């Protein structure tokens, strides 16, 4: 009797095990489907790297080009600001101390990001970056639409988080396809754009100059024995204001890059903000770029809280009240580590049209 009972019990356990296994598989498959992003891409879809040899029956065509807001004309920027002011909606903001743009990307978009970042950080960098992806749809229009939106998010995150990749901005996308794959080419320096004159070797030379300027700043911070986040940020803030001449001269290629701010010392708001971010990153300080339709500045995390830092607006030369060259007199700290309710020149920061955020670096 006991033996018979034991056999029945064992059989029951085996049935339960396989039912559980089958249920587990169903749940896992359901989870994969539920993880499908708004773009219709599975989270575990793998981007495969393309070999040097293109597949047979490979065709390629151009699908899009995006120009960053910071390179738009003033008229275009003003029109965007009008749209933003007309449609602005206040919503909850992720103000966690570990906030970054990368975490807002889907799994597939993060793979694009990682691969473009890796190829761009090579020395010399690649400026025509190719990946292939297993087809998840045979509808080419659907895939093109998905990719155009994903790419705008990816490149926004790339340029907002990596100011040292100063040549990234305007980009083009080409799509090719074979029987089983889409082949994507990201062109990071298209022809007839601001930096098309530069070869990858030219970029290396300019990066070496940036490195020298960066080391000069860091050596001075070390000499002064500045160790707190506050002291380091205050030095970078003051240094950029003193060294730079605010120069709105569109014939100069680098007024909106860290090269303009750190090497040429002639720039506009993008140069100040991205140079400050770049140096702050050397000390592990969580510093991100804020972008409106007409302006760029920084947000900095300090002890779990976020603060506004706008070196451009603290430069007296912006208001034609320049301090003596290369001295630290007459510096302003009106926008140094402030909150959104701070009153700046009789106006609350959060009410300033030039500080109303746009999410994308390329559109409204």
The overall strand count is: 13
Q: Taking Cα atoms only, what radius of gyration do you get, to the nearest Å?
A: 25 Å
Main beta sheet:
5 strands, antiparallel
SSE string, helix = H, strand = E? HEEHHEHEEHHEHEHEEEHEEE
CATH class wording of the largest domain: Alpha Beta
**SS element count, helices:** 9
Helix content: 40-55%
CATH topology of the largest domain: C8orf32 fold
Q: Examine the secondary-structure arrangement and name the CATH architecture of the largest domain.
A: Roll
Which regions have little confidence, pLDDT < 50, spanning 5+ residues?
1-46
Supply the number of structural domains: 3
Biggest sheet strand line-up: 1-3-5-4-2
Describe this structure in words.
With 364 residues, the protein is of the alpha+beta class. It folds into 3 domains: 1-34; 47-69 and 100-187, no CATH class; 200-355, C8orf32 fold, CATH 3.10.620. Helices cover 40% and strands 16% of the residues. It has helices at 2-34, 74-87, 107-121, 140-161, 200-223, 229-243, 258-264, 269-281, 311-314, and strands at residues 47-49, 59-66, 128-134, 171-177, 181-187, 245-246, 266-267, 287-291, 296-302, 305-309, 336-338, 343-344, 347-348. The strands form 4 sheets. It has a 5-stranded antiparallel beta sheet, covered by helices on one side. Helix 3 (107-121) packs across helix 4 (140-161), helix 5 (200-223) packs across helix 7 and helix 6 packs antiparallel against helix 8. The termini are far apart.
